[in-house]
Design brief:
Number of strands: 9
Order of helices and strands: EHEHEHEHEEHHEHEEH
Number of helices: 8
Bound molecules: zinc ion
CATH topology of the largest domain: Rossmann fold
Number of domains: 2
CATH architecture of the largest domain: 3-Layer(aba) Sandwich
Radius of gyration: 19 Å
Helix content: 40-55%
Low-confidence stretches: none
Mean pLDDT: 94
Largest sheet: 5 strands, parallel
CATH superfamily of the largest domain: LmbE-like
Structural class: alpha/beta
Strand content: 5-15%
């Protein structure tokens, strides 16, 4: 059983798109699971065995409670009934309240297929009168993470401040050495993740952020999260600046 389930096409998508948020959820006491729909292989410098070892290291770094890697076909992922059923059974087993998955807009065919599979499996997981394993379950929210191969800026529904967790996120992503096997590739990864997180952070006035999208409206039961940030910088930081200027007589 988990509170939050992150679903991704390949091992490393979850870490790169929302590793900082996973660390934040864990700090807040939530149980977090990750499902990789495929084992991500073949790739030019990877093997199934290597990729699974890397996955386990990254999971340990982020403190993930449950990690399941399904055996759906990498590079040829399809929104098939078999894929829908396999993921729906995992949802019925782990019973998360919130799902995070791929959005529709992407350049990677596996990610686009994953998006369809995730939406269909969320629906199918609640069905009765079925021979699927587990009891019916419906995750109340589905958000999309930013594992995206399309160079596009989508206005996020919300951004999470992951500044305190960003260095650890980079460590988790660096576990996938088979995907970033040279110093140049590792430097590229760090630069890319840092630029993305800095841009997302700039939208809410923090150092590093992770962006999320959704079709449904985000609901809040209180405004503490809204009150924490204000345009142009976090409210607390802006007030500290103003108080310092006043002390200096400006
Ligand atoms: Zn991927």
């Amino acid at each position: 059983m988990v509170d939050i389930l992150v679903i991704a096409a390949h091992p490393d998508d979850a870490e790169m798109s929302m590793g900082g948020s996973i660390l934040l959820f864990k700090k807040k006491g939530f149980k977090v699971g990750v499902v990789d729909l495929t084992n991500g292989e073949p790739t030019p410098f990877g093997t199934v065995k290597k990729r699974l070892v890397e996955r386990d290291r990254a999971s340990k770094t982020l403190g993930i409670d449950e990690r399941i890697t399904l055996e759906l076909p990498n590079r040829e992922l399809q929104p098939s009934l078999e894929a829908r059923r396999a993921l729906a059974e995992v949802i019925r087993q782990l019973r998360p309240t919130i799902l995070f998955g791929h959005g529709r807009l992407d350049a990677h065919p596996d990610h686009m297929a994953a998006s369809q599979i995730i939406q269909a499996a969320r629906f199918a997981a609640k069905l009765t009168k079925t021979d699927m394993k587990g009891k019916p379950h419906y995750p109340s929210k589905l958000y999309y993470h930013q594992a995206n191969h399309l160079r596009v800026v989508i206005k996020p529904a919300f951004v999470l401040d992951v500044s305190p967790f960003f260095e650890k996120k980079l460590k988790a992503c660096a576990c996938y050495r088979s995907q970033f096997h040279t110093k140049d590739r590792q430097a590229w990864l760090k630069k890319r993740l840092t630029e993305m997180a800095a841009y997302n952070g700039s939208l809410i006035g923090c150092s590093y952020g992770e962006a999320f999208y959704c079709d449904e409206t985000v609901g809040l039961s209180d405004i503490s999260g809204l009150a924490e940030f204000s345009a142009g910088g976090s409210g607390k930081q802006r007030m500290a600046d103003i108080e310092a200027w006043q002390r200096e007589g400006r």
